[in-house]
Design brief:
single chain; 19% strand; 288 residues
């Protein structure tokens, strides 16, 4: 599954315009050998006079995140005095992810394709990490402070990307036909809006619903129904924040497009995931 380059959309980022106005955000492609397994690298730097809380509705993806904040001294070295540096594996997030950004900071992240993480950590099902953020060393035992510094210290994006490539290539990927199958099925859900039920996806896959559930638990970290619902919410977020429409979104029409039985079901899922009803979010995103 070759990559077509880093995604350009902001799906999943709540109030993306407000975030982009405050941080320097960019995406980069990984080394060619890694592209079948990774969405992209995502890099953020900021220098804020006032704190800002960012909110993300996570994709069904595992992320590896290297981060540095200029709040305190945790690493001890003279070159990092006044800074906290750490790295973690962030499993698929089940709810809204909120991170407060303060002062000066830097993040270098790896977003794996759904099911793309297992080939780098084949000892465990991906569901082991779902909803968790664990230190990188708990998954990759030899990943110490030198690895974190190699990723976060360079001044150029090229050098940071090269360090991320080197880290990942040292840990795989291990060939895994089941992971490739799961990646393809998640890709189908993301791209084909007519796939709205687990039974439909199981039929396309030529497997029972129970076998599909096991495949997703082992290689994606969440079930196929969860994936279908999450991509619906991403679509609704993007439509709610769209600047191309002349008026408020047609929520009833959007609910039908996304396979909801009625508008009320869309409103309920959107509110539970994002924290505000879609109409309130749309007004906030449009500045009205």
């Amino acid at each position: 599954m070759p990559s077509a380059g880093p995604r350009r959309d902001t799906r999943g980022i709540v109030d993306a315009a407000a975030l982009m106005a405050r941080v320097h955000f960019r995406r980069h492609e990984p080394a060619e050998e890694l592209r079948p397994y990774l969405e992209h690298y995502w890099l953020i730097d900021w220098d804020l006079a006032e704190p800002y809380a960012s909110h993300v509705v996570p994709h069904p993806s595992v992320n590896v995140v290297f981060q540095r904040y200029g709040d305190a001294d945790e690493t001890g070295g003279p070159e990092s005095r006044g800074k906290v540096s750490r790295a973690e594996v962030s499993g698929v997030g089940l709810g809204l992810f909120t991170q407060e950004l303060t002062g000066v900071g830097r993040v270098c992240g790896v977003q794996f394709r759904p099911a793309g993480f297992r080939p780098f950590a084949p000892a465990w099902p991906v569901s082991r990490w779902t909803g968790l953020r664990v230190p990188l060393g708990e998954v990759f035992a030899e990943a110490g402070p030198d690895v974190v510094a190699a990723v976060l210290d360079p001044d150029t994006d090229r050098a940071r990307v090269a360090a991320l490539d080197a880290f990942l290539l040292a840990h795989g990927p291990s060939p895994d036909p089941a992971a490739e199958r799961a990646m393809a099925l998640v890709g189908l859900v993301r791209e084909d809006r007519t796939v709205r039920r687990v039974s439909e996806l199981a039929a396309v896959a030529g497997m029972s619903a129970r076998s599909l559930q096991r495949l997703f638990a082992d290689h994606v970290g969440v079930g196929p129904k969860w994936v279908i619902l999450r991509y619906r919410i991403h679509e609704a977020l993007e439509r709610a924040a769209s600047e191309e429409r002349p008026g408020p979104p047609d929520w009833a029409g959007l609910a039908a497009d996304l396979g909801y039985s009625d508008q009320a079901h869309l409103v309920r899922d959107f509110t539970a995931t994002v924290g505000v009803p879609p109409t309130a979010y749309s007004r906030r995103a449009s500045g009205s």
